[in-house]
């Protein structure tokens, strides 16, 4: 990304290098610019499982994981992919007035199958005339050169994103959440995907009791060293029917309050490389599934609050990034 400090030094409403006055580099703005209008994700449940659930890596999954906590009503592996996409598009078109969509393979690990099966599923999604790309959520231990080569080929015609869940760069935290892979495994997958025309996204969770506040902020420094195009930031929350819910009940630990989290995210973004686009600033779950923390605010409200706080403090994404401060 070209850094134009003069823009930032303007006295009012600075335009940042990502082309907006928003103090962080929002993914939604990037999609709007690239496609000339609103592009919405339409979720798909293609019936995958996960190596951390079926026993090939582990049983029970990551301790916070409950896929029912974010599933849309139109997502079910009992329905075909075209059916799910058609229903999702009809709903989202009315709600967001979008006319282009990215099919989001969200539930479980969406590259955890032989390539032959992946091709059928992905190409069913791409056959919808309003679908301009794929976002594929997966684990870093569910990818290989053959799958990357196929996604690289697709990326010649479509916007292809692979989302590698990381959750934390600290192996002590990955052990605490029963992730069943380490940080180096994620590094290997990201490096394998780099330079192939595929957008690389990752997820992290802030708030594990295994990490200090400074370690959480250092996560921004660590991620900045890797070729990520975008990032989803979640706060740790406890959802019903998870191992975490039991662990929290047996031995409660500190979870972020709303204001405290806003301060953390504001500080985190300052340390993050400025060209990493932000897809999300907090976790979300169906309200009936959430145990704690109960902030009672929607993600868009939190997002505006973070923007206001950054403007109040006169800070922006990358301001104190050690590799590319702007
Ligand atoms: S969070 Fe992802 S990797 Fe972990 S158990 Fe759930 S689906 Fe599997």
What does this structure look like?
The protein has 326 residues and is α/β, with parallel strands linked by helices. 36% of the residues lie in helices and 16% in strands. The chain has helices at 5-8, 27-35, 81-96, 115-126, 145-154, 171-176, 183-193, 213-223, 243-250, 258-271, 299-313; strands spanning 39-44, 100-105, 131-138, 159-167, 199-206, 230-235, 238-239, 277-280, 290-292. Strand 1, helix 3 and strand 2 (100-105) form a beta-alpha-beta unit. The chain binds iron/sulfur cluster (SF4).
Structure summary, number of beta strands: 9
Q: What coarse outline follows from CA principal-axis ratios?
A: globular
Number of helices: 11
The Rg value, from CA coordinates, equals: 19 Å
User: What is the CA-CA span between the terminal residues?
Assistant: 11 Å
Which ranges are low-confidence, i.e. pLDDT below 50, for 5 or more consecutive residues? 1-8
Counting helices, strands and paired strands, the structural category is alpha/beta
Reading the helices and strands in chain order gives: HHEHEHEHEHHEHEEHHEEH
Kindly report the spatial arrangement of strands forming the biggest sheet. 1-2-3-4-5-6-8
Bound molecules: iron/sulfur cluster
Overall pLDDT level = 93
Largest sheet: 7 strands, parallel
The fraction of residues assigned to DSSP E strands is 15-25%
Please estimate the helix content: 25-40%
Can you summarize this structure?
It is built from eleven helices and nine strands.
Which characteristics define this entry?
326 residues; alpha/beta; 7-stranded parallel sheet; two-stranded antiparallel sheet; 11 helices; 9 strands; 16% strand; disordered N terminus; binds iron/sulfur cluster
